[in-house]
Structure formats: C-alpha cells, structure tokens
Amino acid sequence: MALFTYAACFSFAYLRLGAAVGALVLFGVVQLTMIGVGIARGERPGVREWGGLVLALCGLVWLTRPGSSAPDPLGTALMVAAGAAWASIRCARVASRRRSPPPPTTSCAPCRPPRSSA
Description:
66% helix, globular
C-alpha cells in the first residue's frame, strides 16, 4: 500500500510542481520522516543528523511560506505524502534487516560479478 501511495502521490504532484521544488520537498520529507521514526524508536541522532534535520525543516518551511513564489499547495501536499510513504518503505526494510540477516545466497548478489553464459 505504501508503494502505491508513493507512486500515485509522486505522479500527481509532478503535474503541479516543478522538478526542483518537487525534489526538495520529497527528499526533505524523507529525511524528516526517517529521522523522526528513528527518534521514536529510541535512536539518538548525532550533531550532524540534528543539523541536517533542522536544515531540511527550515528549507521546507521557507519553500512553502505564503507568497507569490510559493509552490502549489495541493502539489506540495501530494509530494509530502509521497515522501512519507517512501520513508515508511525504507524504514520497514531497515527494520526487517535488523530482525534477520539475508540468506547468504542473496546477501552479496550486487557485489559479485555477473555469471558468464558460456
């Protein structure tokens, strides 16, 4: 469900937002959500993470402030939903990796050279 939410909101948001604004909102929300989930789970961010969190939040607030150059509110809301959905997918993957390691046959698949067909 989160993947569908991400894809649908992402697609519809870009009908109303420019690429730069959409990317800034998307990645800012992903970072805010992932760090927020980590804090809720008891992790303690370091100084650099707190600094990144503050910068991301300030950027989102500055970008969405009322004014003539403010992005479309519906597009921004859709991109915020897409970012939160993406972060929830990522957090679920991280949590599942902590519970059990991947099987040895697939854990380093991207690291191995491709098999030759001959």
